[in-house]
Fold this protein.
Amino acid sequence: MTRSVIEICEGLATGEFSSVEITQDYLARIAQHNPALNCFISVTGELALEQARQADTVRAAGNAGALTGVPIAHKDLFCTDGVRTSCGSRILDNFIAPYDATVIEQFNQGGTVMLGKTNMDEFAMGSSNENSYYGSVANPWNLKHVPGGSSGGSAAAVAAGLAPAATGTDTGGSIRQPAAFCGVTGIKPTYGRVSRYGMVAFASSLDQGGPFARSAEDCALLLQTMAKFDPRDSTSSEQAVPDYSAGLGQGIEGLKIGLPKEYFADGLDSRIAGVIETAIDELRKLGAEIKEISLPNTGLSIPTYYVVAMAECSSNLSRFDGVRFGHRCENPVDLEDLYKRSRGEGFGAEVKRRILIGTYALSAGYYDAYYLKAQQLRRMIKDDFQSAFDSVDLILGPTTPEVAFEIGAKTDDPVSMYLQDIYTISLNLAGLPGMSLPVGFVDGLPVGMQLIGNYFDEAGLLAAAHSYQQVSDWHLQTPGLTS
Ligand code: GLN
């Protein structure tokens, strides 16, 4: 069961199988492997079969679209009408959204089949999926290791063949880092490209949804469904959406690719550097021109991000007060007790840590020293990229400094966990698109290579990744799960 989305589309079109049949196959595989992997918080089998039946009817009537009948999993922070949206948190354990997120609506209109909602770090805060109220997710390549986070359930589900594709969100790396750890392909689009309406907010100026799949070709198809102007999201872009699949063939002959020297410095596992070097050689053979560049403020990106993201989350999460959404404590004596105990019981340790730090950074007297300063640094980080893009078309580097670590290895050391995102976080601060694709293995665990594009150049990223995937087979490797 390692069919790509494109193969499923072909099988459905030729009648090799129906949507109901392929959906049943995936549900059976989920039933078999999810107990060990814990990729799904909710499996929506009945709904999936109902949607599959409808898709088969639409197809029989000759009205099928590109993705009609294709099964897909959604990260559990996209609101789904009538289906629990937990965000990996106890506070939303009983929350059933009364509406669909725009992304879900677009997939529903496209006729896809929802297999279920995937596990994630609570409110998308984390790099290992160990912060979920529903337990950690196992990496399908080695069950003792983490799948990355925060979209760990989505990445692991695709890697293990429990879904051909899945949605995720990326605030500081949460699509690219788990894609790298699980050996799948994932793209974080330009900020504003995919609607945030109905995507539960972590840090609103950084959050962006995007797809996971086995290949760039599959990601192009999925992004086509996700990318759209949405008047319900005030930061949604009106920029026209190109045909991503049609653009895949543009190749990389003559493309100028920059390697930031700061991304290949201390802190990067030398074995990962070696794997990336080999991939770069392939790109050279395909005609790309490779040159060294500098992003001098790279070292500032982690502290800047953790001030901005925590400040924004402290504000966004104030809506979870025990009154309107989710968990409410038993027998509150007054309103303050209701707030305190509902939030105290509902949020996990990492979320509490961030609300506290964010509230501190925004408080009178500290706002200028922390939040304002972080916004200034954010501009400098963005300017670094803008000057780099004066001389190159794409930027390339590792996605992560190390491969997937063992479950529990970093849970007592938040700072070493935060350092996982050293190469991914600056893109969110700048609002740029980036993707991760598999390029090899270290210790039997996948290595991801990151491609970074200029604003709205998702097509360029997908085309470059596709060219590489035409001459390599890392994206076709699958973990040796029993059967
Ligand atoms: N690991 C980062 C964090 O914990 C990024 C998470 C994300 O992209 N949602 O904030």
Notes: The radius of gyration is 21 Å. The chain has a mean pLDDT of 97. The pocket of glutamine is lined by residues 124-127, 150, 170-174, 202, 309, 421 (CB under 6 Å).
